[in-house]
Amino acid sequence: MAKVKITETALRDAHQSLMATRMPTEEMLPILEKMDTIGYHSLEAWGGATFDACLRFLNEDPWERLRKIRERVKNTKIQMLFRGQNMLGYRHYPDDVVEYFIQKAVANGIDILRVFDALNDARNLETSVKACKKEGGHLQAAISYTTGPVYTTEYFANYAKTLESMGADSICIKDMAGLLKPYDAYELVKAIKETVKLPVQLHTHTTSGLGAMTLIKGVEAGADVIDTAISPFSGGTSQPSTEALVAALAGTEYDTGIDLSKLDDITLHFMPLREKYINNGLLDTKMLKVDVNALIYQVPGGMLSNLVSQLKQQGKADKLDEVLAEVPKVRADAGYPPLVTPSSQIVGSQAVLNVLAGERYKMVSKEFKGLIRGEYGQSPIEIDPAFREKIIGNAEVIAHRPADDIAPELDSIREKVAPYYEKEEDILSYALFGQVAEKFFEYRKNKKYNIDAENADKEKHIHTIV
Ligand code: CO
């Protein structure tokens, strides 16, 4: 019987999509041992935003979080999301940093590394694939799903084939924007299953209200694993609910093997947290409604809210319609990149500039120039040479793997971290989040320093008595 497996996203994508990734480790710990008994394929627990939010907002060491989860999750695989050569950040990093990060991630407890590239340029995954295989991790190569003239089923199937030949252990269709419709999912999964011999996992968001239908059609087409979120953190911009999918597939040839009544313990743990975050405003219930704008404008929901806030800051909220009409034009000029971090921000910001300047490309951002020059990799469709010249003049076009130009950084980072150094992983936190990591290190140090100050005061006090 073709069992379908479940990846639970409660610890990563679910709270990232609904409440800016603010769930602290202490709220996860009490339920982890029970989650470990459910029979999930994996727990998605780590990624760019979880790492960033730990350092930036939660005063937590993301590496400690991973270790604490690993201590309690002994049987279920732990999974992370990784942006290939962008790692967990927003630019390309040198190979030595990528390799060292993956080494430490696996050593600290990551079993499955899900790697994607914003442009679906396989060269940007090369170093990650090699490093993950070397460390004995499971390399899941993800296809950034989007729509547009080049994005036929055949295009995605060919990309899956490339990823398989590079050494991927499984393929993920990553529909970060909730654009994948149920019958398209069926066609896509079927085509990829026919093209590669690897397990196929389906990841979507239920932003437009389609998520559960998309997963079901994907399962019917042969998807081996699907991503779902426990109900208190499911729906809206998050994943479809775990309980609903387990119930829907129970007793069919796709049965997940998960006992629905056992999931109740997990639901009961997360339910009061949902209430807490709705009450304190961190979980905006607007995130939970069906929003078909993503389908109409072909822009991810998260990007839409970014554009609105950028325009509001300029007092130009009334320009939203013009900007929404401009986004697809800028995307076309840039060779139709999928809109996912970091390309979504680059294209969105340029569309805003084009509208606010009153003339297209009168002002061009540094990042957009970089995108057109090839600093992020090869665009899915070739960029018109005349347009490229208009944007970057005679600057050299990068046709090779962009990271080939980036010099090793580990040694210089090691020097910078020296004043704060407590463990090897600090070097990687700093490599990714520079000043944010430094602030966290200060906090960590000061906490200790304060304890010392207390002792110093006591000493002073003692002296005074004497
Ligand atoms: Co996602």
pLDDT < 50 stretches:
449-466
The largest pleated sheet is described as: 8 strands, parallel, barrel
Which molecules are bound in this entry? cobalt (II) ion
Give the CA-CA distance, first to last residue: 81 Å
Shape: globular
Assembly state here? single chain
pLDDT averaged residue by residue:
92
The number of distinct β-strands equals 8
Report on the structure:
With 466 residues, this protein is of the alpha/beta class. 52% of the residues lie in helices and 8% in strands. It has an eight-stranded parallel barrel, surrounded by seven helices. Helix 5 runs parallel beside helix 6 and helix 13 packs parallel to helix 15. The relative contact order is 0.12. The site of cobalt (II) ion has 4 residues, from loops.
Q: What's the short version?
A:
Helix content is 52%, strand content 8%. It has 466 residues and is of the alpha/beta class. An eight-stranded parallel beta barrel has the order 1-2-3-4-5-6-7-8, surrounded by seven helices.
Itemize the secondary structure elements and their pairings.
Layout: E1 5-8, H1 10-19, H2 25-35, E2 42-46, H3 48-56, H4 62-72, E3 77-82, H5 95-107, E4 112-115, H6 126-135, E5 138-144, H7 153-166, E6 170-174, H8 182-195, E7 200-203, H9 211-220, E8 225-228, H10 242-249, H11 260-279, H12 293-297, H13 301-313, H14 320-333, H15 343-356, H16 366-373, H17 385-392, H18 410-417, H19 425-465
Parallel strand pairs: 1-2, 1-8, 2-3, 3-4, 4-5, 5-6, 6-7, 7-8
Helix pairs in contact: 2-4, 2-11, 3-19, 5-6, 7-8, 8-9, 13-15, 14-15, 18-19
The structure holds cobalt (II) ion (CO).
Cobalt (II) ion binds near residues 13, 176 and 203.
